[in-house]
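Handout, section B. The chain below has 221 residues.
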Amino acid sequence: MQKNINPDWLSLLQEEFDKPYFIDLWRFVEEEYAAHVCYPPKIEIFNAFNACALKDVKVVILGQDPYHGPGQANGLCFSVADGISHPPSLKNIFKEIESDIGKSYPESGNLERWAKQGVLLLNATLTVREHEAGSHQKKGWETFTNRVISLINSKTEGVVFLLWGGYAKQKSKLIDSEKHHILTSGHPSPLSANRGYWFGNKHFSKTNSLLQRNTQSQVNW
């Protein structure tokens, strides 16, 4: 398991991996992947960390669960592999980008291109059983990813946290708003977006303005 996580993150999280809760969590994950179809592929569970080292993090986007449909989840929140149809939330993200900064709707829904620019795409729960949303919640992943958020909060400065929806907004209590920037809005899911809680948040232009103010390179969304 540990060989599939970036060494920089591993050195910070090794203590977490050794805690009883995580040992129990990983036993559960092993059993689930052995008995059921689960996502993302096991080798991609820690993909968010492999795609973006802590020293490079300048934006954090928080999701809740991986996609639970075949071939969708790739370990980066809201992202799908090349060639996979875009789920509704991702479509709405791209539509907001189009409206906000005028960037054309992309063919690929693979957000690894964002991760390589310093965007950590972190789900609160890193695994899920096929077609069963929330099936791996409250097993220990939230404790682990809360620790990740706390590490980013303490070891970096000027990170832009994008908290979309009620669940993500709860994570603001882990973030020092004096050191970092927090942008909140409704979730990009159709239920929220169609009620007017997502479109027009301009989070992508606002993020780049904040990065520019911090003399950091902007994200090519």
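Note. Residues 5 and 187 are 28 Å apart (CA to CA). Compare this with the example in section A.
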